[in-house]
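Q: What structure does this chain adopt?
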Amino acid sequence: MTDQPATPIRLGVLLSGGGRTLLNLLDRIRAGELPAEVAVVIASRPCKGLERSKAAGLDVRLIPYKEMPDTETYSQRICEALDEAKVDLVILAGFLSFWEIPERYLGRVMNIHPALLPSFGGHGMYGHHVHEAVLAAGCKVSGCTVHFVNNEYDKGPIVVQRTTPVLEGDTPDNLAARVFEQECIAYPEAIRLFAEGRLTINGGVVHVAPQ
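A:
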């Protein structure tokens, strides 16, 4: 097993909802399983994730998307907060607002999607919309995808994927619960690979160096 670096990488977490993904990362960090620290949490709106972040004693910023005059201004505010916190890697954790990512952050922003990309991705495909589409298509397998983020919805290079079966009689809620179990494994794994310096992007494909 690779030794953890002396200085954990600094994460900036962007969220818009309940904050379950953030709580999972905090649990992994506390358990010594993830060489990282949460340097700042940015919420696009008042939400439960914002309150949970405050309760955890984290540096929290509310940058409301709806109060910004345009995407450019909003994106600038996001970058200012990340720069100030000296973030190494940005983690989208149920972040529903569009952030225009500048070149200096490309290859340093990750997202997790509740399906096996490139299927069931794109604008408007999030949360239960995804699971409903998977069931309507009659898929026998679903899962989650961690990918680097660019400025196209769900188009960035894939880092980690994990699968779960689609069962007879599944509802979107049942499937979502099993997919989230896999998300709780996949996201920390992807962040750990980044922290260990084992990820490179070549020709739009992520390559993972051996330990």
